[in-house]
Amino acid sequence: MNQVLILTRNILAEQEIQQKLQALNYEVYCSAKIFENCGQQLEMLEFFNFFQYVILSETICESEVMELVPLLKNRSIRIIRKVEAKVTEMDHQYLEEALIHAIISNEDSVDELRECLYILKNYKGEKEPLQENRKYVQLSDKVSLIRPNVLQKESISPEDNYQFLEVLHHLSTTETKILSILLQAGNQVVTRETICHQIWNEEVNKSHLASLSSTITRIKNKFEQTNLSHKAIQTLWGKGYRINQELLDRIQMNENLKKVVSNG
Q1: What ranges are recorded for DNA binding (predicted)?
Q2: Which of 26, 33, 162, 211 is most buried, most CB within 10 Å of its CB?
Q3: Residue 127 gets which letter from DSSP?
Q4: Domain boundaries, the chain
């Protein structure tokens, strides 16, 4: 069983996220006292070695996060920032610099939390090497493809496309919708508000924006296993998101990839 530590100023504020994590069979320890003491007593940091994940609650202010994250970054623990509504510029910066590993909110479903933690569990901070010896690619629980014995010599090989198929088939419904929106926009930047409105089909609120930021991060993480030279989705602060040009070209050139995104 994996252990999750939630650091907070108010344990009552963590009941919803705690229940979701426990439904996924995570052992959750929620504490306000440890948070208050860990910055003053360095020996308290050894306590973090018992956990695979630490969640920094939205009840903890930014200045306190700035003090705590550097103390944890060299430990083998996944640092997750929980927000209620607004993802700050500092949160985004920490995420891009890999000082924190994910941003979540109470609005995230059990499905989304499950996928997020699974990705983080296998995250090594770099792209994983290709599994050349595998004779098949698992696309889903029920579908797999046999790899070709001989690869054609072309700029984009079938092997490469199988990698992307595998990732696309493991995107959630919301993740696929977001990718489809960005794909349709081509080289254009799509505002966060536009994406939220198309996904939820209602007036955009802060919870939607927070959930969108978390989902974008999960999409980027899933594409880390491919050979993309840059992040799958480009974040332009104050403007919105744009799909990676290399990923855009690859999907547009391959009918199988395009069909998976379109039918998602």
Answers
A1: 134-245
A2: 211
A3: P
A4: 3-121, 136-262
**String of DSSP letters for 217-235:** HHHHHHGGGS--SS-SEEE
The tens digit of pLDDT for each residue in 1-25 reads 689 999 999 999 999 999 999 999 9
Q: How confident is the model at residue 155 (pLDDT cuts 50, 70, 90)?
A: very low
pLDDT of residue 20: 93
Contact yes or no for 240/212 (Cβ under 8 A) = no
Q: How far apart are CA 28 and CA 50, in angstroms?
A: 12
Contact 118, 110 (CB under 8 A): no
pLDDT in tens, 87-130: 677 777 777 667 788 888 887 888 888 888 887 777 655 444 33
CATH 3.10.50.40 fits 3-121, yes or no: no
Place of tokens 């060299």: 74
Residue corresponding to tokens 């994983």: 128
Q: Please, is 64 exposed, middle or buried when counting C-beta atoms within 10 Å of its C-beta (0-12, 13-18, 19+)?
A: middle
Closest CA to 260 of 186, 171, 190, 188: 171
Q: What does pTM read for this prediction? A: 0.51
Q: Token pair of 119, please? A: 């990705």
Per-residue pLDDT band for 158 (boundaries 50, 70, 90) equals low
CATH class belonging to 136-262:
mainly alpha
